[in-house]
Amino acid sequence: MRFITPVRAVALLMAGWSIVAVGCGDSAGPETSEPASITLLPSEVTFDAIGAQERLDATIRNARGEALDGVSLTFTSSDDNVATVTQAGVVTSVGAGDADVIATVEALSRTAKVTVTPVPAVGFKVSGDEQEALVATALAEPFVVQVNDRLGHPIPAVVVRFEVTGGGGSLSAFEATADANGQASTVLTLGTLAGPVHTVTATAARRSVTAVEFTAIGLPGPPVELQLVAGDGQRQPVETTL
């Protein structure tokens, strides 16, 4: 029978304790609890109307590529005149242009590109329709057309084309650029035809927006000449009808 000396027994006991201590230790560390990367989707957002919205989804991962929950994330916009963003990641278009939406956590950040390009979708008459004027004279008020995007917001700087489509006459402008309120206008000088035959159409240049049609009525002017047409010089017995 072999006897283990006290010193050797203590050494073996300590070695065993060391192994147990390593095996039962906490595996959590910086590589599992600290953010190492941010994924932001979509990475590019394009809006065709003012007031449109889209939500960005951000995922924070540790060094092992595992998603982290409960980590505070901050969203900011580089230009609030183009797009704003909430802390829930909801981006709203405000005006035409480009901006960056930045997601930040500690020293990490990720950027999504935002482009706002309002597209004309709706055109309608504001004023000037169904006016009356003497033929060959200008109408008292212009034809005013409104151009909006699909969400009903006015679009400035859109080129609107006007065309005389009935009754003849001329326009003060065949092309007009919409103002800050999305409105463009022109004045019609009527042709020489009397009646409700004068029409002008307005369309947004290079866009598939439905054309808007204005009408006007030409009134005959005061008489300036009296002409004998027929019946002159007849001969008939007295007391009989010509």
Please provide a written account of the structure:
- By secondary structure, the chain is mainly beta.
- Helices cover 9% and strands 42% of the residues.
- It has helices at residues 6-23, 30-33, and strands spanning 37-41, 44-47, 53-55, 57-61, 74-77, 83-85, 90-93, 97-105, 108-116, 122-127, 131-134, 143-148, 159-166, 169-171, 175-177, 183-186, 188-190, 195-204, 212-219.
- The strands form six sheets. It has a five-stranded mixed sheet with strand order 11-19-18-13-15, with no helix packed on it.
- Strand 18 (195-204) and strand 19 (212-219) form a beta hairpin.
- The longest helix has 18 residues, at 6-23.
- It starts with 5 loop residues before the first helix and ends in a 23-residue tail after the last strand.
The neighbouring-strand order within the major sheet is 11-19-18-13-15
Q: What is the approximate shape?
A: rod-shaped
Q: What is the oligomeric state here?
A: single chain
Individual helix count = 2
Mean pLDDT reading: 88
Q: Which percent band covers the strand fraction?
A: 35-45%
